């Protein structure tokens, strides 16, 4: 469970507090402010005329410069990925082989879109979460000043997340997000970040329409043995633009020509390391 403690702390396990507000949508509440994104951009994909698409992140004027901004996922790779070797000895094949650091799909997924950061340091000690946050009051605009909240356990009853003595936490995000017309945003756990002690729930939001309210991020705190600091700026969610389109599935066996192409490419992949990176990666 998570229990409120004077707006500066929560507890992962405790006796139940009064019932929390309804789940509403798995992702919630926004405002106006400034435009962000000139400093860095996500990994380039095929775009007509090579013009980058723009996501607009805005915050309340009083928080400008106090909140860590969203960052392009290309600039948010974890230290363990940067430090790991590109090759390692495979004891089964008795030779050095590429690690996942040289796997383009693995890395491209991590560098796609933008990362939403934790708004301040969290200290975790024996199940208690505390913080010191210098966010000023909102004045005419009401917004949460704590970095996290929680959802009542009844809101996930019947799911694998349900545990009778624990709440689902919620990371507060004070940036509104506007996507271009026709685009939704997929919010999910920072991709391939298995090192984080929590798992953010996924949700798809039509941010070309829903752009004047905050979107908060429910998460399951899975590592109850974690103790220490979760620093300000830690990515708590990754957002990936998704164009709204209608799709249908078509299934069919390979034609003779397709069979030859598949056989040819399969042999080439086995004999030419890095073929995907050189010839197919966009």
Task: Walk me through what this model shows.
Strand 5 and strand 6 form a beta hairpin. The chain contains 4 helices and 18 strands. The radius of gyration is 22 Å and the shape is globular. The longest helix is centred in the last third of the chain and has 16 residues, at 256-271. The protein starts with a strand and ends with a helix. The chain has one domain (3-252). It has helices at 79-83, 104-110, 256-271, 275-279; strands at residues 3-5, 9-11, 56-58, 71-72, 87-90, 95-98, 114-117, 122-125, 128-130, 148-151, 168-171, 176-178, 183-188, 198-200, 203-205, 217-221, 228-230, 235-243. The protein has 282 residues and is α+β, with helices and mostly antiparallel strands.
Topology at a glance:
Elements: E1 3-5, E2 9-11, E3 56-58, E4 71-72, H1 79-83, E5 87-90, E6 95-98, H2 104-110, E7 114-117, E8 122-125, E9 128-130, E10 148-151, E11 168-171, E12 176-178, E13 183-188, E14 198-200, E15 203-205, E16 217-221, E17 228-230, E18 235-243, H3 256-271, H4 275-279
| Total number of strands | 18
Largest sheet: spatial strand order:
1-2-9-8-17
Number of continuous helical runs: 4
Radius of gyration: 22 Å
Overall mean confidence score, pLDDT: 85
Given helix and strand content, the structural type is alpha+beta
Largest sheet: 5 strands, antiparallel
Distance between the termini: 45 Å
- The string of secondary-structure elements, in order, is EEEEHEEHEEEEEEEEEEEEHH
Assess the beta-strand content as a share of residues: 15-25%
Percent helix among the residues? 10-25%
């Amino acid at each position: 469970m998570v229990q409120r403690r004077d707006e500066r702390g929560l507890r992962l396990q405790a006796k139940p507090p009064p019932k929390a507000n309804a789940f509403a949508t798995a992702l919630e509440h926004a405002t106006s402010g400034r435009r962000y994104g000139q400093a860095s951009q996500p990994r380039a994909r095929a775009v007509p005329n090579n013009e980058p698409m723009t996501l607009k992140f805005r915050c309340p004027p009083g928080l400008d410069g106090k909140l860590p901004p969203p960052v392009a996922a290309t600039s948010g790779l974890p230290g363990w990925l940067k430090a790991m070797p590109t090759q390692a000895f495979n004891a089964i094949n008795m030779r050095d082989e590429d690690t996942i650091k040289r796997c383009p799909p693995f890395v491209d997924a991590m560098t796609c879109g933008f990362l939403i950061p934790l708004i301040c340091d969290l200290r975790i000690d024996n199940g208690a979460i505390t913080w010191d946050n210098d966010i000023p009051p909102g004045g005419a605009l009401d917004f949460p000043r704590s970095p996290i909240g929680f959802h009542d356990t009844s809101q996930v009853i019947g799911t694998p997340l349900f545990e009778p003595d624990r709440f689902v936490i919620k990371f507060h995000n004070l940036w509104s997000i506007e996507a271009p017309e026709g685009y939704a945003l997929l919010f999910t756990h920072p991709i391939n970040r298995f090192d984080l002690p929590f798992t953010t729930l996924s949700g798809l939001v039509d941010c070309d329409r829903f752009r004047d309210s905050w979107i908060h991020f429910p998460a399951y705190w899975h590592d109850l043995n974690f103790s220490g600091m979760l620093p300000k700026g830690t990515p708590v969610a990754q957002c990936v633009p998704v164009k709204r389109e209608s799709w249908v599935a078509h299934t069919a066996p390979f034609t003779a020509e397709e069979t030859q192409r598949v056989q040819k490419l399969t042999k080439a992949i086995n004999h030419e390391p890095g073929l995907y990176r050189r010839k197919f990666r966009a």
